[in-house]
Amino acid sequence: MAAAQRKRTVFLGLPTWAERSALGGALRTETVGGLVLLAAAVLALVWANSPWSDWYERIRDFQLGPAGLGLELSVGHWTSDGLLTIFFLVAGIELKRELVVGELRTPSRAALPVVAAISGMVLPALVYLSVVLLRNGSPAGWAVPMATDIAFALAVLAVLNTHLPAALRAFLLTLAVVDDLGAIAIIAFFFTDDLNPLALAGAGVGLVVFAVLQRLRIRGWWFYIPLGVMIWALTYVGGVHATVAGVCMGLLLRAKPDDSTGEVDSSGARTSHVLRPISAGVAAPLFALFAAGVTISGTALGEVFIHPESLGVVLGLVLGKALGIFGGTYVAVRFTRAQLSPNLRWADVFALAALAGIGFTVALLIGELAFPAGSDSIKAAVLVGSLLATLIASVLVKRRNVVYRQLCEAENRDDDGDGIPDIYQSKGITG
Asked: 76, 136, 275, 316: which one has the fewest Cβ atoms less than 10 Å from its Cβ?
């Protein structure tokens, strides 16, 4: 019995120092970017509901770009199809890193976050469909409440001044990575315009060239930026949402440095280092600025809970996400040889699941795609649902913040001053 107990893996145990170091920079950047994103969303709401709201609409709808290439788009369109490509490129890089050297590199390590993420996408969709089918609404928005906004969630944690342990932060990031993959797959397969096979073939050839350049270890932005822009443009003209191009290029970048050439960082790590601040601090906030500007009034907020589509989004984000992620995780742990870390409780997992109900950026994007003729009510529902998820998660997280503070102090204590916390050396998990 004791031998069997020792063989059980620990769920939400302390990650290795190498893994924590790799995630640390990403989490810091996403946290700062989330604060900027939060500010952009507030600015959008204030601006759209101010006496200068007509200027907001004029700027958002202003057209620019080469019309001859089919790329004369509005400013709002450029932020969703253009700048968000950078956002998804970084997501693709992070997914590749997780698959090659991170939490998803082996089936046993990937099982829990993948099951949690999938159940956290399926249940919100089912909640939405149940609401609209019972009230004769449109099923078009089934994918809206499926997304998690990691930057916004980390910004909430920063505002709350919480001390979430490294294991919970790492699990949240892994959930969001798998979630982003699911979102981009949904966009690619369910939200496409009339396809242009010739343009898509051109984009495919561009991706092959991109992969060959990576295989040959070719470096230099002067190769990749023109090629990336061409792939993006052909994908857009081909009728597939252009952000798909970003994920594809991110997945093609190498996640491991080439020791034979003396590389210190992989091409994916170098690209992420350059683009992550742009993605978190510019691309996502600008998208939020021109996507979150909906007219808010007492009547409009009341209608969010009346119309089946908007109600389905709110319930999907608040209930579907929390119950889906928690339930999927609990079942997966019970049916595997895993056991919850003795330092944490299942209440901590539920708080994290509730936090994942903040589905801001990608949820707004899918809302625009699902209801192209008018998505303001859906956007308002995303805002309301994300706000409610924030409030619920805030209460749950703050209840345990004293415990989190103690765990974080133990995780960061470095009495010998060698730059590696003592707990990692004592447990032998510095690799």
From this structure: 136
Residue matched to tokens 């093609």: 252
Beta strand 73-74 with 338-340: parallel, antiparallel or unpaired? unpaired
Give per-residue pLDDT as tens, 292-340. 888 777 776 778 888 999 999 999 999 999 999 999 999 988 887 778 8
pLDDT at 55 over 60: yes
pLDDT at 342 over 80: yes
What is the predicted pLDDT for the residue at 31?
Answer: 79
pTM: 0.86
Side-chain half-sphere exposure of 52, counting CA atoms within 13 A: 9
CA distances from 420 to 21, 82, 132, 167, 417 (A): 10, 40, 52, 17, 8
Beta bridge partners of 73: 64
CA 408 to chain centre: 24
Identify the bridge partners of residue 11 per DSSP, sorted by sequence position. 340
Q: Is 339 helix (H, G, I), strand (E, B) or coil?
A: strand
**Strand 9-11 relative to strand 338-340: parallel, antiparallel, unpaired?**
parallel
Q: What value does the mean pLDDT take over residues 243-269?
A: 89
Residue 346 has pLDDT above 50, yes or no: yes
**Nearest-angstrom CA–CA distance, 173 and 19:** 12
CA separation for the pair 389, 399 (Å, rounded): 16
Residues 6 or more apart whose Cβ sits within 8 Å of residue 356 = 120, 148, 153, 172, 175, 176, 179, 321, 322, 325, 389
* CB of 386 closer than 8 Å to CB of 357: yes
Per-domain boundaries in the chain: 2-191+241-424
In 144-220, where does DSSP find H-type helix?
150-160, 166-190, 197-215
Assigned token pair, 244:
């798909």
| CATH class for the region spanning 2-191+241-424 | mainly alpha
